[in-house]
Amino acid sequence: MIRTRFAPSPTGYLHIGGLRTALYAYLFAKKHEGKFLIRIEDTDRERLVEDSLKNILDSFVWANISIDEGVLLDNNEITQKGDKGPYIQSERLEIYQEYIKILLEKNDAYHCFCTKERLDEMRKNQEENKLATGYDGHCRNLTKEEVASKLEAGEKSVIRMKMPKEGITVIDDLIRGKVEFKNELIDDQVLIKADGFPTYHFAVVVDDHLMEISHVVRGEEWLASTPKHINLYKMFGWEAPEFAHLSLLINEKKQKLSKRHGDVSVVDYVKKGYLPEAFVNFIAFLGWNPGDDREFFTLEELEKEFDFDKVGKAPAVFNIEKLNWYNKQYIMKMSKEELAKRCGSFFQEKNVDISKFDLAQVVGLEQGRANTLLEIVENTSFIFSLSEYDSTMLVWKKSDREKTKANLEKTIEFLENLTGEWNRENLETTILNWIKEQELGNGDVLWPMRVALSGLRNSPGPLEIASVLGKTETLNRMQQAVDKI
Ligand code: GLU
Fold first, then answer.
1. Coordinates of motif 'KMSKS' region in the sequence (predicted)?
2. d(CA 465, CA 383)
3. Do the Cβ atoms of 269 and 259 come closer than 8 Å?
4. Which residue has its alpha carbon closest to ligand 1 atom 8?
5. What pLDDT is stored for residue 262 in this prediction?
6. Which DSSP symbol is given to 142?
7. Shortest CA distance to 1 belongs to which of 241, 335, 298, 337?
């Protein structure tokens, strides 16, 4: 059974890179009819951020990535599901204590009593002499008796792993292939801290084993730690999972994505009105591609298509224009009714009274124009309330004030007497014919009408706007424009 996990530390919001890691882990599990689980790695107590766990889980709900096991939201409440729990590391301390005993007994781990001062001094020396930094093994060979007496005397200690000093450790990574590490260069990693909490390295191995994780999918930054993990598996006599280390996400300036250079949290994109299906489609392509020129994939299609042999080693570039393009395409494909629903919370946030207009028609004005739901809401605000605009804007570049006024008045008269349905098609055919009959240019009529109805130079087409505003409001706004001139 394929079992993958995403193991966030609740130290902030879900990062885009985190979502990609989780997505790939999820897709791989789904492809093989396996399970995807979430485990919370909260052993670094100082970095915990309140509400972060709820936020992370909310992002999964938003992205429609369902969690089979572990920590998840049930009716918006954080819960744990599955028989291999608890799935929150701070609730597993006894388990780590039990397993560290095994390594101590086998002499694969040892107590280290070195003080912070000694370690700082050691590091300084190593740096000054340009030696590799790392623990020098000072406590590696203390006798049982020495250890017992120090412990009895109440000396503070950590527990370190006894890394073999010879040989190499090989990782056969699903993305990177074989990667070799010289054991002598690998530190005697702390496994249990002085406060009794495990370090990430110890907890991750114990948990991935006990939770029967078959494939560890994580960021490239963990690759250098993996030989330590593999050695821990060996010490325990456990079979190690497969590993897939994903490349870094970078921006177009080839910098690592970071807050300083723009939005990096999934919630930032939620707030801006990206559609989850477009966002997930875009994220899937950050490192993976189907091997042909298809660009649109639903989550279900990705579940079938995804595989690590199509994931690249090179850093993946996060290109906001590409994301905008995806989002716009998905917005265009959506029915106006569905789009109106998706925009609902954005209208609410802006306190717009949407009761007077057909919202589906309103948002339809921006289909093909706007990139995001937020843009749709912002760009259609003139429908609900017309802002002040300068009367000179009404005058088309090839016209003057007098002609503009006369044309607006004529148009009002024409529209007042217009028979047939007040919709875009009817408006288009009749007005365009009428303009010709009057021997006017389109700009003479449509430009002042655009400004009168929207207060903007750049807006959806005036006849489209008129159809959404309805006859009364359209004529009102045009009359207001006449009065302005
Ligand atoms: N807690 C680690 C993180 O925050 C998980 C790394 C892993 O997946 O092993 O990235």
1. 256-260
2. 8
3. no
4. 218
5. 73
6. -
7. 241
Q: Which residue has the tokens 């000179």?
A: 392
DSSP assignment letter at 129: T
CA 441 to the chain's CA centroid: 49
Which of the listed CATH numbers 3.40.50.620, 3.90.1150.10, 3.20.20.70, 3.30.420.10 matches domain 3-89+249-317?
Answer: 3.40.50.620
Fold of 391-484: Arc Repressor Mutant, subunit A (1.10.10)
Question: Of how many residues is the chain composed?
Answer: 485
Best of 4, 5, 6, 9 for a ligand 1 pocket test (most atoms within 8 Å of beta carbon): 9
Q: Among 3, 218, 248, name the best residue to mutate to test ligand 1's pocket (greatest count of ligand atoms within 8 A of Cβ).
A: 218
Residue with tokens 């990609």: 20
**Residue 205 alpha carbon to ligand 1 centre in Å:** 11
Q: Give the start-to-end residue ranges of the domains of the chain.
A: 3-89+249-317, 92-246, 334-384, 391-484
Q: Which two tokens stand for residue 456?
A: 């903007």
Answer whether 3-89+249-317 and 92-246 agree in fold. yes
Burial class (CB in 10 A: 0-12, 13-18, 19+), 324: middle
CB environment 161-190: b (16+ within 10 A), e (fewer)? bbbeeeeebebebbbbeebebeeeebebbb
Is 259 annotated in a binding site? The answer is yes
The reply to whether the predicted model has a pTM over 0.90 is: yes
- Write out residues in the chain with pLDDT < 50, as ranges: none
| CA gap 235, 229 in Å, rounded | 10
| Partners of 80 in the β-ladder | 71
Q: Which of 60, 13, 14 is nearest to 36 (CA)?
A: 60
CATH class of 334-384: mainly alpha
Distance CA 464, CA 53 (A): 45
Examine the residue annotation and report whether 259 is marked as an active-site residue of this protein: yes
Q: Tell me: the pLDDT tens digits for 394-428?
A: 999 888 999 999 999 999 999 999 988 999 999 99
Class of CATH domain 92-246:
alpha beta
Q: Answer positive or negative: Cα dihedral of 295, 297, 301, 307.
A: positive
pLDDT of residue 430: 95
Output the six-digit token pair for 479: 């009359």
Pairing of strands 190-192, 249-250: unpaired
Single-letter amino acid code for the residue at 265: S
For the chain, what is the largest distance between any 2 Cα atoms, rounded to a whole number of angstroms? 108
Q: Give 90's DSSP letter.
A: G
